[in-house]
Amino acid sequence: MVDSITLLHYFPYIALVAVCGFCAYYKTKNNTGLKIIFWCIFLFSALRYNVGWDYEAYDNTIRDKLSWQINRIEWLSRSLMLLARQTFTQLYFIICSFVTLRLVYVVIKKHSSDPALSLFIFLTFSLFYLMTMNIIRNFMAISMVMYAGSLLLDKKYWQYIVIVILAAGIHSSAYLGFLLPVINMLRLSRTINIIMFVASFLIGEILKAYLMDIDSSIGIVQSVQYYIKFNADFTQGGSYKYVFYALAIVLFIFWNRMVKQDSNNKLWLNYFNIGVCAWTAFSFQQTLSLRSSLFFTIWLVILIPALLKAIPVKYGWIAKQAVMVLFPALFFLNLWILASAYNAGLLEQASFLPYRIFLLAD
């Protein structure tokens, strides 16, 4: 730990965003820019040491300093931890980083109209990339469910089922992935999605009471009830719901243009709106709302390039500049807020600062 976070500690992130931003902004042959962004964010994540709220807890669990903790973890995650215990601790973080980021990369490359920009958005939207280094198991499951959602479009139903079951072996929240076929089949209209969006502001307390009355012997229900009862002093990503609300409204405005441009956009729009509704409906517990909604809001990385494509040409250039400025601005604002809270003594850890690599760890 350091006594205080200084401007120098931001440099690794500034370098990362600068290189990836350059690759996203300028077109390259053979997706070279996309590949550079992937390897930058993978290595940055895989080589990190004590970066992220839960890194130390995972590290201690793998080293058997918290032997009781490993029994609470899902079977596939536990297997990966035991493998790392038998080899070397950092292997767990390397595997999780690669699987999470590679699956996001594959989906983006296949479905985005601008893959390099999509991966840059994934990097700079703080609830995505930074969270992969924070809620490690949860986000690995999210990326697996995202990949499974892509398999649905190819009608690879058995592969989809297997991937979701494996994802649940990483984190039980992945069972939410079984909602994807229903959403895929319905593909609700803009009007119904707007009604759902408005209604989600009204049902929070009703949903809270209902969830607390369900039989807690069911694993995923037990996890949900734990998060409802859990009152953290520092909640995750709470203010970002307003960013999601603003984005949802913009997407409603351009909905018809985007669907006309590509019929699959209707599915991504449905996924994203359901994620925003989940965040709002579960807003009585920020950790629960964040972790449940991310399974669906992750599709924002596909939607932003589609949105830019749907904007009239004379405004498209301005819109892209806004994205290239605003998303990194939010990224560094998030880091600054955490650093300021740490420097003021309000947090024991600045989570992502300072950045260190395990090869140079003390």
What does this structure look like?
- With 362 residues, the protein is mainly alpha-helical.
- The protein has two domains: 1-174 and 316-362, no CATH class; 187-310, no CATH class.
- It is built from 19 helices and no strands.
- Helix 4 (75-86) crosses helix 9, helix 15 (255-261) runs antiparallel to helix 16 (264-281) and helix 16 (264-281) crosses helix 18.
- The protein starts with 10 loop residues before the first helix and ends in a 19-residue tail after the last helix.
- Domains counted in the coordinates: how many? 2
| Shape, per Cα inertia axes | globular
Radius of gyration: 20 Å
Major sheet description:
none
Overall SS class: mainly alpha
Q: Strand fraction band?
A: under 5%
How many DSSP E strands? Answer: 0
H and E string: HHHHHHHHHHHHHHHHHHH
State the separation between the terminal residues, measured CA to CA: 11 Å
Which percent bin holds the helix content?
55-70%
- Counted by DSSP, the helix tally is 19
Structure characteristics:
19 helices, mainly alpha, 362 residues, globular, 0% strand
Which secondary structure elements does this structure contain, and how are they paired or packed?
Elements: H1 11-25, H2 32-46, H3 55-62, H4 75-86, H5 90-111, H6 115-124, H7 129-132, H8 136-153, H9 157-170, H10 180-186, H11 190-199, H12 204-213, H13 219-229, H14 240-253, H15 255-261, H16 264-281, H17 286-297, H18 300-310, H19 313-343
